[in-house]
């Protein structure tokens, strides 16, 4: 395949940044999107130019590090797929592809396609944990959990914290991420001691970090590579209202 890439280049947080065009040829349709960027960087290094900085780690669709906006869509054109699991056969020979970083106030650009997502870490630190001692793996039936709750918790736990929801949201809200974490922990018996403090503290940190408010446009769940459903935000709002109305316990 022959491709024209228009890649966002930014030397640092204070640099204005710009789109730079690159030509690539002989790209295998079976290559992943990140492998294609590796080929680009090998070409740039061979030509004495600065390679494009981008985040990556597991390359197995698990860690969420491979966060790119591809042709205006977080993680690219294929639904429920991370950038590292996106393959070049999803594009046409000769296509022009725009590659940009996440765009959100709470995710400042570090360099090129790399953004600082440590705001998510601070949200988790403020309440995304349990204090109940669990020890070794318990016997399966020692703590009864209704199957609908277990299934729902597992579904929410699939969130990998990539931030695609934030990048897709016109308000830069992390409500889907926050809703997934609150739903996952709030449905488990071990998550009950912190339930009310958790939702208030995490939402307060969310707002302090500069994320926007949710207006239920639904772009977040469309962009989510794990298909986290929009209604986790409803549970987030429900728990927050209960906590604010007196359910919060110290």
Automatic annotation (TrEMBL):
InterPro entries xrefs: 2Fe-2S_ferredoxin-like_sf, 2Fe-2S_ferredoxin-type, 2Fe2S_fd_BS, 4Fe4S_Fe-S-bd, 4Fe4S_Fe_S_CS, Beta-grasp_dom_sf, Helical_ferredxn, SDH/FRD_Iron-Sulfur
Iron-sulfur among keywords: yes
Species this chain originates from: Actinomadura rugatobispora
UniProt KW keywords: Iron, Iron-sulfur, Metal-binding
Pfam families noted in UniProt: Fer2_3, Fer4_8
Cited PANTHER family: SUCCINATE DEHYDROGENASE (PTHR11921:SF41), SUCCINATE DEHYDROGENASE IRON-SULFUR PROTEIN (PTHR11921)
Highest taxon of source: Bacteria
Family that this chain belongs to: Belongs to the succinate dehydrogenase/fumarate reductase iron-sulfur protein family.
2Fe-2S ferredoxin-type domain boundaries: 1-103
Cofactor(s) essential for the protein: [3Fe-4S] cluster; [2Fe-2S] cluster
Keyword Electron transport listed: no
Protein name (database record): Succinate dehydrogenase/fumarate reductase iron-sulfur subunit
4Fe-4S ferredoxin-type domain residues: 150-179
SUPFAM superfamilies (alphabetical): 2Fe-2S ferredoxin-like, alpha-helical ferredoxin
């Amino acid at each position: 395949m022959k491709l024209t890439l228009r890649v966002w280049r930014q030397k640092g947080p204070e640099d204005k940044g710009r789109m730079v065009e690159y030509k690539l040829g002989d790209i295998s349709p079976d290559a992943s999107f990140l492998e294609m960027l590796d080929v680009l960087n090998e070409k740039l290094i061979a030509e004495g130019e600065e390679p494009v900085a981008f985040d990556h780690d597991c390359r197995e669709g698990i860690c969420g590090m491979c966060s790119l906006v591809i042709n205006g869509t977080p993680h690219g054109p294929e639904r429920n797929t991370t950038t590292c699991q996106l393959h070049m056969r999803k594009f046409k020979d000769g296509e022009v592809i725009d590659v940009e970083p996440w765009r959100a106030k709470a995710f400042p650009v570090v360099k090129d396609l790399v953004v600082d997502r440590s705001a998510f870490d601070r949200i988790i630190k403020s309440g995304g944990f349990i204090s109940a001692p669990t020890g070794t793996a318990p016997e399966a039936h020692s703590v009864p959990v209704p199957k609908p709750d277990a299934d729902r918790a597992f579904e929410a736990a699939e969130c990998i914290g990539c931030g695609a929801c934030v990048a897709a949201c016109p308000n830069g809200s992390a409500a889907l991420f926050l809703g997934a974490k609150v739903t996952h922990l709030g449905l488990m018996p071990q998550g009950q001691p912190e339930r009310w403090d958790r939702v208030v503290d995490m939402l307060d940190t969310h707002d302090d970090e500069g994320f926007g408010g949710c207006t239920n446009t639904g772009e977040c769940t469309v962009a989510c590579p794990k298909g986290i459903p929009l209604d986790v935000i409803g549970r987030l709002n429900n728990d927050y209202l209960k906590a604010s109305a007196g359910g919060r316990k110290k």
